[in-house]
Amino acid sequence: MSAAGSEPLCLRPERAELVRLAARVNDFAATHGLAFADCHAFMLAAEELFANTLSHSYPPATLAEFTIVARESSVVATYSDDGSPFDPTARPEVDTTLPLESRNIGGLGIHFIRRTMSTFRYERRDGRNIVTFGRVLSHINRSEKQL
């Protein structure tokens, strides 16, 4: 498996940029032979973090970056933005046992990231929110060269 996709994708925090973000994840998944479940998990996580930047960053972020790299049997992605400090890993767990009408609005995207990724870390460095998330792959295209 090669390290293709390791160049950061720079995104303006605008809804139209979701197309480029989705294309990066899909291209990476196709290049590396990721199973649908793995591609979907990374797509969901990347879109959720980008949506949080769009909806909750005040003052608004001016730049977001996304990087995704392959390791021997896993994939690790990093999402960062220059918005106000926001640690998604500090958000409370969602109680999915409650009836819908008893639940608070929001938090399910982060809940899904926690459930689909084996690593989910946050740090604030140099005025940026940096979220790293990764997953042991359910399928690796064995014809790809291993790192």
Structure report:
With about 150 residues, the protein is α+β, with helices and mostly antiparallel strands. The protein has a single domain, classed as Heat Shock Protein 90, CATH 3.30.565.10. It is about 30% helix and about 25% strand. It has 3 helices and 5 strands, in the order E-H-H-E-E-H-E-E. The protein has a 5-stranded antiparallel sheet with strand order 1-2-3-5-4, with helices on one face. Helix 1 (about 20-30) packs antiparallel against helix 2 and helix 2 (about 35-55) packs antiparallel against helix 3. It is globular and about 40 Å long. The termini are close together. Mean pLDDT is about 85; it is low at about 140-145.
Secondary structure blueprint with pairings:
Blueprint: E1 9-11, H1 18-32, H2 36-56, E2 64-70, E3 74-81, H3 108-116, E4 119-125, E5 128-136
Helix pairs in contact: 1-2, 2-3
Tally of alpha and pi helices? 3
Number of strands: 5
Quote the CATH topology. Answer: Heat Shock Protein 90
Helix content: 25-40%
CATH superfamily, by name, is: Histidine kinase-like ATPase, C-terminal domain
Please indicate the percent range of residues in DSSP E strands (runs of 2 or more).
15-25%
Quickly give the structural class: alpha+beta
The total domain count is 1
Q: Which ranges are low-confidence, i.e. pLDDT below 50, for 5 or more consecutive residues? A: 141-147
Largest sheet: 5 strands, antiparallel
Concise description?
The chain is α+β, with helices and mostly antiparallel strands. It is built from three helices and five strands, in the order βααββαββ.
